Amino acid sequence: MKNIYVDHAATTPVHPEVIEAMIPYMNEVYGNPSSIHTFGRKARRGLDEAREVLARALGCQYEEITFTSGGTEADNLAVIGYAMANRENGNHLITTQVEHHGVLHAFEFLEKNGFDVTYLPVNADGIVSVKDVENALTENTILVSIMYANNETGAVQPIQEIGAFLSEHQAVFHSDAVQAFGIERLDMNELNVDMLTVSSHKINGPKGVGVLAAKKELTIQPNLYGGEQERKRRAGTENIPGIIGLKKAVELMETTRNEKRALYKSLRETLLSRLQEADVNMLVNGSHEQVMPHILNVSFPGVNVESLLTNLDLDGVAASSGSACTAGSIEPSHVLAAMFEDSNRSQSALRFSFGYGNDLEQIEEVAKRTIKIVQRLQT
């Protein structure tokens, strides 16, 4: 029996070409990029080239890229860093109930430190209302943070429209685009965002590398104190091998994006069709139109998700109940809880997410194994 990995929304395998690109920066170009000698200058050159590639990929300027240890740190730097540095302009912040915990917990921290936070609801498709964002704005609002695409359901938010009207307000607009990176074309100017977060390990790059793209005129309080790396926004010696890996992953991403979108859409449609044809009792969670092509979230009423995941794993299928950050937790998904009043919906929800290495034959097999297990557990 061949194991099949369909949990790419949690993390992705590192592409062989990414690994190959990283190796010289671990055994040859090992200097500190802040050093002025030859070893340091070679490392600095690699860092500078990576920053240029990321700036082009995100539609921003070279000096607006800050490398971090991952998406969570980048989210924290954007949310906490901007709010704390600009408190004199207001203490009201806006986000949604369905954000990644890297954002939600940052706002909870700010609430404990005297900020007023509005957590906007979403509809049954997991999408926030543009009107609700407008209505929540006050003259004291200094920051709005809304994710581009949800990591559990794949629901895509109306970022461009929200950014358009926020351009007339003092509030700075941040979007966590970790789950969209590599599949959607991201351009900060076109999206009307001031800050954008992405992560390496979601696009077949190494873990431990993220990026906050933030307009250079923004004042952001650093979360780390030490040296003056990353234009004083993020202290600490840069992870050069990881950043080089991210650079290579982005270059590969740029040449395969359209091909991947088409493939993932076909895989999603195939799996959904096979489940529907088998007439298993199921409910699709999230929008049918405004959705990332690589994510399918389905509830199987009457089935305990932990039992389902265990049986799938024993049968060689690696899927997920939602966010990897809460793996092992028996608490229901905060995303599905915000979308539906029925708590049973989240207790039987399964997320399939597609990526590098998946093909149609694999997904047909995933469908067969899932149907067999669900039918057994629902009887």
TrEMBL record:
Record InterPro entries: Aminotrans_V_dom, Aminotrans_V_PyrdxlP_BS, Cysteine_dSase, PyrdxlP-dep_Trfase, PyrdxlP-dep_Trfase_major, PyrdxlP-dep_Trfase_small
Domain of life, source organism: Bacteria
SUPFAM superfamilies on file: PLP-dependent transferases
Pfam families, sorted: Aminotran_5
Annotated Gene3D superfamilies: 1.10.260.50, Aspartate Aminotransferase, domain 1, Type I PLP-dependent aspartate aminotransferase-like (Major domain)
Keywords: Iron, Iron-sulfur, Metal-binding, Pyridoxal phosphate, Transferase
EC assignment: 2.8.1.7
Broad enzyme group: transferase
Cofactor annotation: pyridoxal 5'-phosphate
One example GO MF annotation: metal ion binding
Catalytic activity: (sulfur carrier)-H + L-cysteine = (sulfur carrier)-SH + L-alanine
Record domain Aminotransferase class V: where: 4-365
Keyword Metal-binding: yes
Similarity comment text for this entry: Belongs to the class-V pyridoxal-phosphate-dependent aminotransferase family. NifS/IscS subfamily.
Protein name as annotated: cysteine desulfurase
Source species of the chain: Texcoconibacillus texcoconensis
